[in-house]
Amino acid sequence: MTHRLPEAGGVGGRWREAGAAIPAGLDEEAAVAAMLAAAGAPEPDPVAVAVLEETAEYLGAGLSNLINLHQPERILLGGWAGLQLAPYLMDSVRRHAMAYALRHPAARVVIEPGRLGPDAVTVGAATLPLADFFARGGRRDEPVGEAGLAHRSPPAVRQG
Q1: Buried b (16+ CB within 10 A) or exposed e, 91-110
Q2: Is 34 within the bounds of a domain?
Q3: Is the dihedral of CA 133, 136, 137, 141 positive or negative?
Q4: CB 30 within 8 A of CB 22
């Protein structure tokens, strides 16, 4: 599923709003790829560079709120945007997050790109049944009968 780039939405929309000539009908993912190419060109587009730095600051400020409120040990940036932007923005995002966050929780958190790639959600969902299975000690659920009670084998009777 692709989303069309709104006039002023997302990072690509912000680039357009700042004056970039983005072709009509370009989706957000393609617009971000074009902006990264423009910012990394031999003669970088100063508007693209400024929008990326602004994006890093906003993301860092948002992550600092997460750090201050929940004090996580690790924050992973994923999804197509995280995977595409991380190589260019990760250091800047970390710098801004640490600048805005409280010292103690900021010193304990690691911010890094996710390693599962674009299939991270699928892989995570696939682990849920396994996590439940292992939480039950590797035992299957007891089947439920008509009366809503689990079928159980009768206890063994000792002979003799």
Answers
A1: ebbbebbbebbeeebbeebe
A2: no
A3: negative
A4: no
pTM of the model: 0.71
Q: Is 16 contained in some domain?
A: no
What would the DSSP string read from start to end of the chain?
Answer: ---BPPTT-HHHHHHHHTT--PPTT-BHHHHHHHHHHHHTSSS--HHHHHHHHHHHHHHHHHHHHHHHHH--SEEEE-HHHHHHHHHHHHHHHHHHHHHHS-HHHHHH-EEEE-SSGGGHHHHHHHHHHHHHHHHTTTPPPPPB-TTSPBP-PPPPPPP-
For residue range 76-119, list pLDDT tens digits in order: 998 888 889 999 999 999 999 999 999 999 999 999 998 888 78
Q: What is the pLDDT of residues 40-80, one digit of tens each?
A: 999 999 999 999 999 999 999 999 999 999 999 999 998 88
User: How many whole angstroms separate alpha carbon 99 and alpha carbon 137?
Assistant: 44
CATH, residue 66: 3.30.420.40
Domain count, the chain: 1
